[in-house]
Amino acid sequence: QSVLTQPPSVSAAPGQKVTISCSGSSSNIGNNYVSWYQQFPGTAPKLLIYDNNMRPSGLPDRFSGSKSGTSATLGITGLQTGDEADYYCGTWDSSLSAWVFGGGTKVTVL
Amino acid sequence: QVRLVESGGGLVKAGGSLRLSCAASGFAFYDYSMTWIRQAPGKGLDWVSDISGSGNTYYADSVRGRFTISRDNAKNSMYLQMNSLRADDTAVYYCVGEYSNSLHYWGQGTLVAVSS
To answer: Which residue in the set B60, B99, B106 is minimally distant from A45, CB to CB?
Structure first.
């Protein structure tokens, strides 16, 4: 059971938008920065969003992040077949003194 | 260009030991906290251990007392000594550099398989 809660899967047609939610508590999301990771099968995760809503240089602005209270959201607009991957949210948990993650969300482009 | 290269994974019997290494380049290693993240086959991300630039360490409850994280800033390297390995330690182990409150830089991973 993951500390952070994500939907197992989301899907949309090419060009559409998807959002992935990540729910936590005051000891993690509520008081720490959230980051998001993209992982293709057989490869290492890659940082997508850090500090709740910042994109690493070179990442297209189709990807966005937000946080409100103890929840965070990843948005992907202009969905492409190349966006099919697993997406994880993560943050530090101050009570556990540990990095915690959501269980991952599989994005499918219909 | 940032590069993290893990080594030392392999097949080991339950109760055995392995030492993972991570060689870093392309950034000021001594300034970064470093992390080991693992991923069991078909499962999600699982935090294992953290070490700050000055050497403060943190461990997941599941590995505390069995695993030891360390670093050598002079060699730009991080290590994970894994003892008393169990079948549920089987996973790909990633070396990760932390920056700006995130797991910023990832290695390609090394597979640890523990047979029961």
So the answer is: B106
> Checking DSSP bridges between strand A9-12 and strand A105-109, what pairing results, if any?
parallel
Identity (one letter) of the amino acid at B90? T
Give me the count of residues in chain B: 116
Give residue B100's pLDDT band: very low, low, confident or very high (50, 70, 90): confident
Beta carbons of B32 and B53 less than 8 angstroms apart: yes
User: Which residues of chain B have a CB within 8 Å of the CB of A33?
Assistant: 100-102
Distance from C-alpha of B101 to C-alpha of B116, rounded to nearest angstrom: 37
Which amino acid is it at A76? I
CA-based end-to-end distance of chain A: 28
Placement of tokens 């500390």 in the chain: A3
**What tens digit of pLDDT does each residue of A22-59 get?**
999 999 999 999 999 999 999 999 999 999 999 999 99
Question: Is A12 within 8 Å of A75 (Cβ atoms)?
Answer: no
Name every chain B residue with its beta carbon within 8 A of the beta carbon of A2: 44
Compute CA B105 distance to the chain's CA centroid, rounded to the nearest angstrom. Answer: 13
Whether residue B56 lies within 8 A of chain A, CB to CB, comes out as no
